[in-house]
Sequence to fold (144 residues):
Amino acid sequence: MLGRRVPLIAGLFLMSATCPGCSPFSPGKVCTVMGCGPSFAVEISGAPAQPSMVVVATAPEGSSKSTTCHCANGMCTGMCSCANGLCTAYLEDFTPPTATIRISWDSQTAEFTVRPTYETTYPNGLDCPPACYHTRVAVTLPPP
Fold:
């Protein structure tokens, strides 16, 4: 009977030596590899019914991110979503303390200064990287 247990015990020992988080004898953690996704969302009220907009966000030190939204019949291209007069533009890897948002559409331009508040999330668990920072800022376009 002991002869059958030796390979099992040896296998469990080998697994715990080569994969510390996999051992049944020690509590380990297993982290997934989920990423953060877009960090900065600009919610735009008063958008045209079938918008084609360029959204540029600039931080105080001069770094900027932009996206172009083309929306028609409820479908959008770019890092955008639109429904019922509300469009959201998503910008990745952008977490400034303040930002100037410039939106251009139909030969018009509007500019807004925002001071975002960030929420920290841990998509793979508190003990696993990365820490992600997300915000949503809301702006309203002026009437045509």
Q: What stands out?
A: Residues 1-26 have pLDDT under 50 and may be disordered.
